[in-house]
Amino acid sequence: MRTTVEFDEDVTKAIEQLRRKEGLGLSEAVNHLVRRGLLAPSERRVFLQRTHPLGLRIDVSNVADALDVLEGPEHR
After folding, report:
1. Would you give the distance in Å from CA 20 to the centre of its chain?
2. What is the per-residue pLDDT across 23-38, written as a single tens digit (0 to 9) for each?
3. What is the mean pLDDT of the chain?
4. 19 — phi, psi (to 5°)?
5. Which of 11, 49, 51, 58 is close enough to 7 for a disulfide, judged by CB 3.0 to 4.6 Å?
6. pLDDT of residue 67
7. Where are the domains of the chain?
8. Which of left, alpha, beta for 55 (phi over 0: left; psi -120 to 50: alpha)?
């Protein structure tokens, strides 16, 4: 497939560096770097919910009552 793509300066440097090091053509170098990126393990961060005690016990079975406790009845 042929297409026109504009690379950022840092990407262009990486492509040129790989071409010189491995003796690759432009398409070969770009394909190599794209494959390397696709195969790289994704870094997943563990989500940790932080909580703080508010000193309140709120029954959330009735949303309107819970909002009254949290925001006050004037916010209705």
Report:
1. 32
2. 999 999 999 999 999 9
3. 89
4. -60, -45
5. 11
6. 85
7. 1-76
8. left
pLDDT level of residue 54 (50, 70, 90 thresholds)? confident
At 22, which amino acid appears? E
Considering only CA atoms, which of 38, 2, 33, 36 is closest in space to residue 15?
A: 33
C-beta of residue 32 within 8 angstroms of C-beta of residue 24:
yes
SS3 string of 7-57? CCHHHHHHHHHHHHHHCCCHHHHHHHHHHHHHHCCCCCCCCCCCCCCCCCC
- Rounded to two decimals, the pTM is 0.52
